[in-house]
Amino acid sequence: MGKRNFVREHGRQIGVGLIALFQVCLVALTVIVPSSYVTAHNILHHLNFLPLMFAGMIFGTRGAACAALFAAVINAPVIARHWAEWPMDAKDQIVELSIFSAAGLIAGFLSDRERAQRSKLEKTRQELERVYLELRSSIEQMRKAERLSAAGQLAASLAHEIRNPLASISGAAGILQRGSAPPEYLHESLDILQKESQRLNKLLTNFLNFAKPRVPRLQSTDLNKLLLSVLSLAAHAAHERQVHFEQVSDGEAMEIACDPEQLKQVLLNLLLNAVDASPENSRILIRAVALRQGAKIEVEDAGVGISDEDAARIFDPFFTTKPKGTGLGLAISSMIVAQHGGRLSFDRNTSGGTTFCVELPVQKEASHVE
User: Fold this and answer.
1) How confident is the model at residue 161 (pLDDT cuts 50, 70, 90)?
2) Would 201 be classed as within a structural domain?
3) Residue 201 pLDDT > 60, yes or no?
4) Does residue 51 sit in helix, strand or coil?
5) I need a labelling partner for 191 at 20 to 30 A (CA). Which of 248, 288, 312, 330 fits?
6) Burial of 33 by CB count in 10 Å (0-12 exposed, 13-18 middle, 19+ buried)?
7) Domain boundary residue, one of 105, 133, 161
8) Which of 199, 277, 280 is nearest to 244 (CA)?
């Protein structure tokens, strides 16, 4: 800052010196040029306008006043000499210097006002920048607090969810440890250990997928082929529940940029939820629609719908209405769709049931490496 001020002050001194030198040169030329060169004298008189204007524009009103005073002092002897020989020329020179000085003062006034406005804007910019930095710092602190709060809630929910499987495992282990139980109890205890261990493994896997999701690896994907693949994966569950799928499409190939494995996971979860929610001999509608800015996939079931109380928490981690559900399926699906820049939503059907909608935008890049 000190060096900058030094350079600025040095520049001001050079500017003052040049303006003063310009004025002195004009007076010297007026004296040197013979009085018979009327045109030359007129030009020299009019050139006095330049240093006065420069002084006002560069140094403001104070600079213009100093330049006008200096011009009056150095021109006074010349005007006095001309007054005796050419009084008309001397009067013209006085009038011209007065007008030029007034113009310089006006330019100085406008320059001062512009400089003050610029200084005010600079102060406002610095204040806004300071407020922005404070706001960004506050937002970061809020995000950290929100992440800590979410982590605490997830940890509490996870502890609650693993309590029942651990209790079952502990009971079965106690039966096996005593060794005096009938054979059928031993077989049942081993079956409990296996099922509850698998349930815990699934729960922890889903929790890790939710807590630290994989970055999508985007690639060009045929949406219709991907839907057929997902329908084949969910066919067995649909057959057991005696429901059937109906795919609606315009028949045209729809290429989108997505992570096909992650999108399969989302759609499979929606289809299996629809199967669980639908009564026997009902229909599940899968609709793919090409949009101008992406694509939309809808999964419509014929169930009883989602209550108002459950609707507010449907995407919350560990919230489920299924007896054996983990409550992470929709939460993970919503996160995956959000990572693709899209949105997962739902709506109640007019005839009952629910329609889940996956909206995916056009991706600018077709590949994304983790």
Assistant:
1) low
2) no
3) yes
4) helix
5) 330
6) middle
7) 133
8) 280
